[in-house]
Design a protein that fits this description.
alpha+beta; Phosphorylase Kinase, domain 1; D-amino Acid Aminotransferase, Chain A, domain 1; 2 domains; seven-stranded antiparallel sheet; phosphoribosylaminoimidazolesuccinocarboxamide synthase activity
Length: 236
């Protein structure tokens, strides 16, 4: 399949059209951003690691019956995906307290959340991705009640697959965000699942192995991503 024109350039990925209107090329760059793009750096190998990591995770989810947009890897930094009509609402599951939840509610970082929490955020950089609820999403036409219910079901299904996968590799899946879209009328998991969009801690030491290393200036960002990939057995 032939890659053609640039369709969209995000903070860390670029999307290209192909000669098939139903498919796109998703290219992972080495750009790393935080605070809604206020801080951007180039980190060598990051695009390659995230691309292969994302493909590995999406294959695990597909094997568990979760529909994803992933088709195949086509290079170290790119993959072929279905073209989705994206829903502008992110789904977030939290298994442990961290990040904005700690700041908003004043709870202790690392507190186990039983049951896990589920939150919705509007994808809008200018507004810093504000937290919203189902009523907002329905009223403003971002998603239907039926779509939201399926997104929530799939988000927790992802948790059922990935939480034990990371646990067996000596890591805690602290929290993660997912994006969904429509393909031929079906709700499909889109975008990516990588250490850029989730929090992962070492189970014993609570060492951070995700993008918080960049946000908090801890260093060793790509090395941490590679360590996660190594523990999971992601082919590099």
């Amino acid at each position: 399949m032939e890659k053609r024109n640039e369709l969209y350039r995000g903070k860390a990925k670029t999307v290209f059209t192909t000669d098939d209107p139903n498919y796109l090329v998703l290219e992972f760059r080495d750009d790393t951003s935080a605070f809604d793009g206020e801080r951007i750096e180039q980190l060598a190998r990051k695009g390659m690691v995230n691309n292969k990591f994302n493909h590995f995770i999406m294959e695990k989810l597909a094997a568990a019956g979760i529909p994803t947009q992933m088709e195949k890897l086509i290079s170290d930094n790119a993959c072929l995906v279905k073209k989705l009509d994206m829903i502008p609402v992110e789904c977030v599951v939290r298994n442990f307290a961290a990040g904005s939840l700690v700041r908003r509610l004043g709870v202790e970082e690392g507190q186990s959340l039983v049951p896990p929490t589920f939150e919705l955020f509007l994808k809008n950089d200018a507004l810093h991705d504000p937290m919203v609820n189902e009523s907002h999403a329905i009223t403003f036409g971002w998603a239907t009640a039926e779509q939201l219910a399926e997104m929530k079901r799939l988000t927790f299904a992802v948790n059922d697959v990935l939480k034990p996968l990371f646990d067996q590799a000596g890591m805690l899946l602290v929290d993660y965000k997912l994006e969904f879209g429509l393909f031929q009328g079906e709700i499909i998991l889109g975008d990516e699942f990588s250490p850029d969009g989730c929090r992962l801690w070492d189970k014993e030491t609570r060492t951070k192995l995700d993008k918080d290393r960049f946000r908090q200036g801890l260093g060793g960002v790509v090395e941490a991503y590679e360590e996660v990939a190594r523990r999971l057995g992601v082919p590099m």
